[in-house]
């Protein structure tokens, strides 16, 4: 076998993540590696924490990136907050809520499931019924932005309800952070995790998390040690904590953190509100183009995530064939359906740096050509036929 350097094709990433990474971020990641206890690096870590506080809209001291992808942020929240025997209410309206259930059970807790239809937002009334019926429950967990369906739930309302029944909240903001409002302090979220490869447009592999005072109190009063040594926040904070001795815990992913620093700096330069507005405006533009092709969204208008557009695959159209052609002919990646929606929907991401006008034009144009080729009713003359007519 002949081995050579790997040179990936240049793609446009409009799936459910990873999203297009800005060249500034890739350039930052290629800078020289220094020691993870180097004072210059420690100074950069402090900036990453402050920039993350901005992104999460929080003053929480314990705000930092876990050294692994979004799933590790999820586990960090559950491993530290759930103890054996704890009852945890998990609202599920897609794939990722199911993973929360797994996490609760693997921590020795019992998950009380509140099920909503996939593609719909979480119903606060159902949560309230569950809270009334399970007075022992002390934690409520839910996904704010369900990437598997493109539905957005009302985090503020759900958190308020949980607090009325004396429950802490664990919120999945992997797809929302940087794309749609996430206001940790204003909404009173107790524990939250996100990812770097969705609307922050960084490379995958880090998971920003933030914990409020109530969550810390529960962690401090645990009866047993956190089962996971790597994710035990008491130990991690010896490295990341402010004023900490910066004791060695694990070697931080130095260059990945350069990337996150640059990504957060770019978010700060643009301004959160502007980033949210850009995601919404681009969603509206893509929506207009997709609907003109006869494609329909699976989520109600009011609950749609602007950064994740899930549309039904037209009858008679082969899912894989279209996605393969997009990749091979246009270097364009869109997402397939996940779980119960596999083969039924496409998930078109407009996340972070991928949320820009030229991507909308590329994606809508490519879909129009391919769908007309395959005989779908796109409501317009096939572009190829139109072109041939002009040339004739
Ligand atoms: C992508 C995603 C995750 C998992 O993140 P990874 O970085 O893939 O581990 C968790 N929750 C939601 C809602 C996601 O979209």
Would you give an account of this structure?
The protein is built from 14 helices and 13 strands. It is α/β, with parallel strands linked by helices and 392 residues long. Helix 1 (23-29) packs antiparallel against helix 10 (254-270), helix 11 (272-292) packs parallel to helix 13 and helix 12 (319-330) crosses helix 13 (357-373). The chain has two domains: 23-268, Type I PLP-dependent aspartate aminotransferase-like (Major domain) (Aspartate Aminotransferase, domain 2, 3-Layer(aba) Sandwich); 271-391, Aspartate Aminotransferase, domain 1 (Alpha-Beta Complex), CATH 3.90.1150.10. The mean pLDDT is 95. Helix content is 42%, strand content 15%. The strands form three sheets. Strands 2-10-9-8-5-3-4 form a seven-stranded mixed sheet, with helices on both faces. It is globular, with a radius of gyration of 22 Å. Pyridoxal-5'-phosphate is lined by residues 17, 69-71, 96, 143, 147, 172, 174-175, 195, 204.
Fold topology:
Layout: E1 12-14, H1 23-29, H2 39-56, E2 62-66, H3 70-81, E3 87-92, H4 95-106, E4 110-115, H5 124-133, E5 139-143, E6 145-146, E7 151-152, H6 155-164, E8 168-172, H7 184-187, E9 191-193, E10 207-211, H8 213-220, H9 233-240, H10 254-270, H11 272-292, E11 308-312, H12 319-330, E12 332-336, E13 345-349, H13 357-373, H14 383-391
Parallel strand pairs: 1-12, 3-4, 3-5, 5-8, 8-9
Antiparallel strand pairs: 2-10, 6-7, 9-10, 11-13, 12-13
Helix pairs in contact: 1-10, 2-10, 5-6, 11-13, 12-13
């Amino acid at each position: 076998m002949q081995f050579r350097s790997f040179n990936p094709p240049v793609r446009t990433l409009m799936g459910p993540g990873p999203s297009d990474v800005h060249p500034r971020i890739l350039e930052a990641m290629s800078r020289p590696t220094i020691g993870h206890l180097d004072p210059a690096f420690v100074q950069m870590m402090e900036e990453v924490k402050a920039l993350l506080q901005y992104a999460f809209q929080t003053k929480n001291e314990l705000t930092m990136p876990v050294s692994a992808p979004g799933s590790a942020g999820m586990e960090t929240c559950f491993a530290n907050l759930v103890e054996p025997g704890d009852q945890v209410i998990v609202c599920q309206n897609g794939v990722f809520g199911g993973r929360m259930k797994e996490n609760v059970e693997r921590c020795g807790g019992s998950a009380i499931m509140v099920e909503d239809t996939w593609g719909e937002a979480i119903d606060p009334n159902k949560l309230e019924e569950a809270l009334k019926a399970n007075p022992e429950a002390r934690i409520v967990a839910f996904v704010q932005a369900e990437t598997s369906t493109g539905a957005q739930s009302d985090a503020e309302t759900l958190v308020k309800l949980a607090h009325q029944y004396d429950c802490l909240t664990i919120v999945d903001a992997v797809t929302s952070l940087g794309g749609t409002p996430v206001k940790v302090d204003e909404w009173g979220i107790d524990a939250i995790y996100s990812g770097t490869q969705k609307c922050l447009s960084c490379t995958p592999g880090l998971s920003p998390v933030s914990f409020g005072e109530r969550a810390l109190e529960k962690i401090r009063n645990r009866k047993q040690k956190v089962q996971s040594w790597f994710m035990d926040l008491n130990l991690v904070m010896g490295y990341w904590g402010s004023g900490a001795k910066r004791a060695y815990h694990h070697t931080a992913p130095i260059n990945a953190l350069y990337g996150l620093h640059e990504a957060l700096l770019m978010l700060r330069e643009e301004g959160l509100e502007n980033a949210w507005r850009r995601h919404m405006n681009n969603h509206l533009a893509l929506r207009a183009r997709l609907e003109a092709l006869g494609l329909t969204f699976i989520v109600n208008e009011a609950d749609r995530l602007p950064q994740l557009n899930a549309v039904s695959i037209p009858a008679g159209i082969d899912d894989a064939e279209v996605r393969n052609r997009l990749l091979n002919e246009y270097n364009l990646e869109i997402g397939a359906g996940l779980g119960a929606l596999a083969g039924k929907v496409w998930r078109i991401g407009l996340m972070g740096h991928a949320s820009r006008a030229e991507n909308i034009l590329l994606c809508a144009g490519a879909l129009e050509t391919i769908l007309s080729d395959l005989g779908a009713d796109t409501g317009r003359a096939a572009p190829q036929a139109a072109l041939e007519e002009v040339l004739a």
